[in-house]
Amino acid sequence: MLVGASSDFLKRFSPFNRMEPEALGFLSERAVLAFHARGSEILTPEMGQPTHFHIVQRGKVQARQTGPASVTDYAAMTLGPGECFPIGAISAQRPSTNAYVAVEDSFVFQLPAEDFLKLMQMSPVFHVFCTQYIASLLNQSRQQLQSTFAQRAAEQQTMTTPLGQLVKKAPIFVTPDSSLRAALEKMSEMRIGCMVVTDSEQKPLGILTQSDLLPRVVLPGIDLQRPIGDVMTRTPHVMSASDSAYDAALEMATHGVRHLLVVDSEGRLKGVVSERDLFTLQRIGLRQIRSSIEGADDLDALQRASRDIRQLALNLIAQGIGAEQLTQFISALNDALTCRIIDLARARHDLYGIDYAWLAFGSEGRHEQTLSSDQDNGIIYVRPEGADPTELKNRLLACAKEVNENLAACGFPLCKGNIMASNPDLCLTLDEWKGRFGDWIREPDPQALLNATIFFDYRVLCGNERLGDQLRAWLNRTAKANANFLRMMASNALQVAPPLGRIRDFVVDDDGTIDLKKSGARLFVDVARILALRTEVASSSTVQRLRQAGNKMGIASEEIAALIDGFHFIQLLRLRSQHLDTEHDAPGDNRVNPDTLNELDRRILKEAFRQARKLQLRLRLDYQL
Amino acid sequence: MNWLTRLLGNSADTATLDAALRDALAKWEALPAPDPGTAHFETRYVVINTEATGLDLDKDRLLAVAAIAIDREQLSPHDSFHAAVEPDAAAALTSLLAFAGKGPVVVFNASFNRSLLERALDEHLGITPDWTWLDLHWLLPALYDEHIDRPARLADWMKAFGIETFQRHHALGDAWAIAQLMLAAQARARALGHNTPRTLADLEHSRRQLRRHG
């Protein structure tokens, strides 16, 4: 009868109101009620693996994020009647990330951990509820990632950026009694376009800009020993650090000045904003980059566009874009850039009458290009009747060589393995490509399998798309008919296991890091490729392959979504590490030290690797490996 | 039962009971008395509540008994008991004893509940359990004087804590509310240094004294 008291209560809340009667009965029978006085800790990370699942019956419980990586908007969350915790920790059987503290005198039901797991098995409703909750952790982590970048990216973000954020360098200034010579030497040494003059409290008194020098100093023949105070512009234009970049642009336009002094709330100099700073701000937008690429007519302009693409990528992360869209943007702009480079090269090489397409391989082919990807490309073409094969190919190769070099100049490193269109082995006719692919499929030795992982992920970047489609249709048919080849591919894909430890969370390399490319993203990519070949999916993108092949194979859509989320999360971490590295001018790599991640990210990374394991397990079962 | 058997002691009484009940009672008798000095987190308290035809001890009869255990500061709906006194009062009360063991027991308003129950136990089983009785009627105002600083009705305390129950004025329904109050009482008592049934009993005692002399 008392069991009814618990179930009556639970039935008022989701998901318990939708729960199957026998599951609700099980829960009501096993949940016990405990009281937690205001201020007492119910569960903390230090308590280790949670022994109970909690459901608030009455009162308020606050979840506080602990550890150094806490982020404000998720720092505290209050749970009221009907809400439960810790779902993620207890499902994963690991210590909670949050500290749960009663902020009011609270009554809380608790269910032993083993009963929680039984309940998950028993009740599909509860299972979905918990799974969705864990999935929402992924979103939270994405938000955390965004706020990490927000600060730095805001510097170039929009015209609404406060000037305080736009000022990068510590202010450089002199007092009015400093000699002109000392001031000019300092300007030259620091490579600045103006010198600010302040009083002893660092409050601006005047400014002297480079353009003032000619009329005020050089032409009148002023003695450089005289104090700067004699020639400076008094009452300079000053703006508050909280004013926006837009305000500054307006001020400059109104008064025809190129420099504005930014001061803090007490009127002290904080820095200088120049016209050029504001110009940079306007330049970096998706549309602007796009049109600057299309309008570029020399390498210089393209190099600038390439730098802008990287900057935009950083901004986009900060604006809250997910890994999938982000890589799509990067890849769309890189495609535009590459096409423009090809256009410019074509103008200098005679390719008239040749039916061809520029192919991208590997990550670029999958639309998963990160910021440190080498160029991987090739050419597919049709030889016109009666053309001289050697002469024709040489023309294509010469053009390709220029494209490869210009791509390198724009920040796409030359491929160390010479997987480039200027390599005669990769500038082939449709029939030659078929022959090449066919050889690998018929005789899948280790090198052939490795080649397949790179070249089968091709797509047409510009040129005649139909050539790519014809090759794809042929490839899918041929691979599908060759079960042994797919089986070898599968066996190859299973060589690397997700770095999940039995005792520790992660298996790390000697330097304490995990290679997110080799032991992370590639696990998804490799399995997706095989599934796509088997189900004849035309897309080269891993996400699309998983989605389309998964649907064809009848994998539940939530399951597919979970796999894709896992893949995205790893991609996001990769992009993050590349961005952080770029800032230090170190080569971007794909390594992450799990100890430096915050608890939440660590937990999700573990979940992502579990998804990879799940995907591998499916392959293992399918091919009985 | 007549006054004579009551006077002569309980042996005569139990003799009239059937073998199963006698067994159960013997088992109960044989239970060791709990140490009133153990901490809350090691103690099984039994919240007992009664339902009677009315509130007049002289006229009204016991209808039902209910009990809920609070074992190691946790209230388990599973660990609960309810029995109507009719038709077999002896059986109902024996089961209650078996459920409650040797206490300590918790009631709300002992002057009514305890009296009614002790009378019934004596009448039907010839037993007066040597329980440590704790009365939340006195303990709650001693522990949570910021809510109510004098003995108050159950409904008032339920309101103070926002406690609900599935059925008021039902032996088990009210017991469910009383048990939740006991959970709160334990937590506060622990914070104030009253860590055991004995210290709670002392607190209640001094509170009654204070009231009497104050």
Automatic annotation (TrEMBL), chain B:
Domain of life where this protein originates: Bacteria
UniProtKB keywords: Exonuclease, Hydrolase, Nuclease
Family matches, as InterPro entries: Ribonucl_H, RNaseH-like_sf, RNaseH_sf
Entry GO MF terms: exonuclease activity
Tagged with keyword Cell wall biogenesis/degradation: no
A Pfam family per the record: RNase_T
Name by which UniProt lists this protein: 3'-5' exonuclease
Organism: Aromatoleum toluvorans
